[in-house]
Amino acid sequence: MPKQLFVLSAPSGGGKTTVARHLLATFPDMKFSVSATTRAQRPGEEHGRDYFFLTKDEFAERINQGDLLEYEVIFGNYYGTLRSEVKRILDSGGIMIFDVDVKGALSLRTAFPEETLLMFIAPPSMDALEKRLRSRQTESAEQIALRLERAAMEMQSVEFFDEVIINDILPVTLERAELVVREHIGA
Ligand code: ADP
Ligand code: 5GP
Fold first, then answer.
1. Quick check: CB of 14 below 6 Å from ligand 2?
2. Which tens digits make up the pLDDT trace of 37-57?
3. What's the CA gap between 37 and 78, in Å, rounded?
């Protein structure tokens, strides 16, 4: 059965954003699932395109309203997938890409077992991951340490994923990700 929900997970800095951008540019019908979060906006990020940036109170209100398909607290902030967005795409027969943590990925598969494909983007090593996080220059040293600590836990979930891509040489990674999507949309 063709898949509609393509879920990218990786430790922070693993390459999800880079892969997601490539897939969105390659598949014009693919929509990005814009998550809600309480974390601060990074330079270059846009509200409504990268995330819906909410206050903690606003996020709590969305939880109470039942608007979130899944949510997690990660690095002290809330992150969650909006139910309305996913329903709209599924109903229209479209395809969607998600950038979520490993728990979020497993929750999405539980909610839509037939429609979901889980892709894990793994860094070639913890050293490489640390270097990429540092060179991205979007987090403090303390935030980077938290992300590396969580990465070790996340790497243990790889066995639950349908496809694992080692993100070493970027063009190879992008080509592989593209191929995985092509294979599963039935094109
Ligand atoms: P994530 O969204 O998973 O946190 P990003 O896509 O932001 O990760 O990637 C983290 C950093 O590593 C970015 O600065 C990105 O440009 C860089 N990067 C991604 N893939 C590679 C790669 N294969 N080789 C070198 N740098 C990479
Ligand atoms: P970042 O702050 O680097 O954008 O994201 C931190 C982590 O939160 C990443 O692992 C990212 O995939 C995850 N994340 C982003 N949106 C969601 C979401 O809607 N749900 C879940 N469970 N995780 C998310």
1. no
2. 999 998 899 999 999 999 999
3. 5
Long-range contact set of residues 58-65: C-beta below 8 Å, sequence gap at least 24: 62/36
Q: Nearest 5°: CA angle at 70, between 76 and 155?
A: 65
Q: pLDDT tens digits, residue range 117-138?
A: 999 999 999 999 999 999 988 8
> What band does 89 get if pLDDT is binned at 50, 70 and 90?
confident
Q: Quick one: pLDDT at residue 85?
A: 84
Helices 16-26 and 170-185, packing angle to 10 deg: 50
23 CB near ligand 2 (under 6 Å):
no
Among the listed residues 16, 19, 8, 10, the one whose alpha carbon sits nearest the alpha carbon of residue 171? 19
The amino acid at 49:
R
- 141 burial via Cβ count (<10 Å: 0-12, 13-18, 19+): exposed
Looking from the CA of residue 105, the nearest atom of ligand 2 is 22
Amino acid sitting at position 4: Q
Residue 158 is classified by DSSP as: G
Alpha-carbon distance of 67 to 32, in angstroms, equals: 17
Pocket of ligand 1 (CB under 6 A): 10, 12-18, 132, 135-136, 167, 170, 173
Phi, psi of 90 (to 5 degrees): -60, -45
* Nearest alpha carbon, ligand 1 atom 24: 170
